[in-house]
Backbone:
C-alpha cells in the first residue's frame, strides 16, 4: 500500500516551473521525453502525463503527486503541460508527440472535454490504458470517436460543492443572504460545484445572485466588491475556485467586513490554507490535487500489471477551518496527518 500522506518529492519545484518535466526511475537525465520502441522501461513501465498548465498551483500539486507515486512505484513518468487552461490545440499537439513516442499508459487532464480525443484514438486502438484525471472526458463523444477510457480519477464536483454548503451553514445564521461567484459559465466542474452548494443550503440560506468571474482572481474581487456595495446584507460568498476565493476575501477586507462576511472556496490552495491560519477566510474545501496525481499513477501501475480496475475513483475532499488549517498547511500539498487514503487500485 502506498501511504499518500508521506509522499513528497524534492523535484516538485521543477515540475511547476517548466512545461516539460520528466521523472525517471534510476536514470540520470531528465530533460527530454525518451521514446521507446519496446514500450517498457526498466523498473516498471513508461507513463505519459498530459496536464493543464503547471504554473497553476492546483495542477502543479497534481504533477508533484504523480512524480512522487512514479518514483515510489519505479516507473518512468513524462509530464507535458498546456500553456494555459484554454490551450486545447497546444495540449493536443503535445499528446500527439507522446503517442508517437509510445508509452504504456496515458494520464490525461484535458483542457476541454473533447480536445484530446483525436490523439487518444490510436492509444485506445492499441489497448493501452487511459486514465482520465480531474476534468471528465465527454464519454458520449469518446464512444463516437472509438476511445475507451480505462478509469476516471478526480473529485466529485457536486460533493465538493455540497461540502462548501455545509461549511457555509456552520458560519452564517440560517436565513442569511449569500452570493455565488462562479468560474466559466459552461465549465462542467463549475456547474456541478455550484449545484452541490445550492442543494446543501436550499431552504436554509437565501442565494441572492450568481455571477461568473471566469476563474480569475481580479474579476472575482471586482464582482464581490460590486455585490457588497449593492447589497450590504450579504453574509457570505461561495466560489468553486481557490484563486477566486482569495480575490473575494480581498474585497471583503477592503470593505472593512473581515470576520463579518464569510468566504468559502473550493480547492484548498496553499494561499487559502495560510489565509485561514492567519484569520482571513474562515473555511475552504481542500480537494487534494496531489492525491489525484498519486492515484492516477497508481491506476496506471495497476492497469499495466493487468489488473481490472474500477471505472471511477472519487478523490475525497476535506472541510478545512481554523481547527485543522495548520495541520493541512504543514502537510500541503499532501493530505494532513490522520487523513490516510489507501491505494484504491490494490
Residues:
Amino acid at each position: 500500500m502506498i501511504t499518500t500522506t508521506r509522499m513528497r518529492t524534492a523535484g516538485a519545484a521543477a515540475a511547476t516551473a517548466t512545461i516539460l518535466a520528466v521523472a525517471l526511475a534510476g536514470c540520470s537525465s531528465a530533460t527530454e521525453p525518451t521514446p521507446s520502441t519496446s514500450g517498457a522501461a526498466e523498473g516498471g513501465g513508461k507513463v505519459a502525463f498530459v496536464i493543464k498548465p503547471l504554473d497553476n498551483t492546483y495542477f502543479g500539486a497534481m504533477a508533484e503527486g504523480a512524480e512522487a507515486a512514479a518514483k515510489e512505484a519505479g516507473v518512468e513518468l513524462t509530464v507535458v503541460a498546456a500553456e494555459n487552461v484554454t490551450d486545447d490545440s497546444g495540449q493536443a499537439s503535445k499528446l500527439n508527440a507522446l503517442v508517437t513516442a509510445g508509452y504504456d499508459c496515458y494520464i490525461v487532464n484535458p483542457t476541454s472535454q473533447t480536445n484530446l480525443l483525436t490523439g487518444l484514438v490510436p492509444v485506445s486502438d492499441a489497448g493501452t490504458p487511459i486514465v482520465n484525471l480531474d476534468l471528465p472526458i465527454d464519454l458520449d463523444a469518446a464512444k463516437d470517436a472509438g476511445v475507451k477510457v480505462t478509469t476516471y480519477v478526480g473529485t466529485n464536483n457536486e460533493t465538493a460543492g455540497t461540502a462548501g454548503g455545509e461549511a457555509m451553514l456552520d458560519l452564517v445564521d440560517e436565513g442569511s443572504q449569500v452570493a455565488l461567484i462562479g468560474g466559466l459559465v459552461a465549465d462542467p466542474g463549475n456547474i456541478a460545484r455550484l449545484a452541490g452548494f445550492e442543494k446543501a443550503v436550499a431552504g436554509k440560506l437565501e442565494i441572492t445572485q450568481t455571477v461568473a468571474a471566469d476563474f480569475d482572481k481580479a474579476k472575482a474581487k471586482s464582482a464581490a466588491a460590486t455585490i457588497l456595495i449593492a447589497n450590504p446584507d450579504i453574509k457570505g460568498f461561495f466560489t468553486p475556485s481557490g484563486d477566486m476565493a482569495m480575490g473575494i476575501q480581498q474585497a471583503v477586507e477592503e470593505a472593512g467586513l473581515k470576520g463579518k462576511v464569510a468566504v468559502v472556496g473550493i480547492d484548498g490552495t496553499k494561499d487559502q490554507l495560510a489565509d485561514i491560519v492567519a484569520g482571513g477566510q474562515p473555511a475552504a474545501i481542500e480537494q487534494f490535487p496531489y492525491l489525484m496525481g498519486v492515484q492516477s499513477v497508481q491506476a496506471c501501475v495497476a492497469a499495466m500489471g493487468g489488473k481490472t480496475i474500477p471505472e471511477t475513483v472519487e478523490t475525497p475532499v476535506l472541510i478545512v477551518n481554523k481547527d485543522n488549517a495548520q495541520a493541512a498547511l504543514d502537510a500541503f500539498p499532501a493530505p494532513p496527518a490522520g487523513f490516510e487514503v489507501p491505494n484504491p487500485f490494490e
Notes: DSSP finds twelve helices and 13 strands in the chain. Confidence is low (pLDDT under 50) at residues 1-42. The two ends are 7 Å apart (CA to CA). The first strand starts at residue 20 and ends at 23.
